[in-house]
Write a structure and sequence with these properties.
76 residues, mainly alpha, 47% helix, elongated
C-alpha cells in the first residue's frame, strides 16, 4: 500500500505543479474552468485513491472501466 500512496502522491505533486503554472497566467480559485482529465490505471487501488481524493474535494468525476485483451502470436 505504501507504493500506491507514493504513486498517488506523485500524481498530486504533478497536479499541484500544473496549478502553479495556471496561477502564473492569472487563473485563480474564482476562475471557472472545465478540465477533462483522463486517467488510466492498471491498478484498481490507484483509481480508488484518486476517486477518494476527488470526492473529498467535491470535484465531479466519472469512472469508466475497460478491459484490455492482449493477443500473443507465436512466430514460426
Amino acid at each position: 500500500m505504501a507504493n500506491n500512496n507514493a504513486e498517488m502522491q506523485g500524481h498530486l505533486d504533478r497536479n499541484e505543479s500544473m496549478w502553479n503554472i495556471w496561477k502564473e497566467h492569472g487563473v485563480n480559485s474564482e476562475t471557472e474552468l472545465t478540465v477533462n482529465f483522463h486517467f488510466y490505471s492498471a491498478k484498481k487501488q490507484n483509481m480508488e485513491l484518486l476517486c477518494d481524493e476527488l470526492k473529498s474535494e467535491n470535484i465531479k468525476f466519472e469512472v469508466k472501466e475497460t478491459r484490455t485483451l492482449i493477443f500473443l502470436k507465436v512466430g514460426k
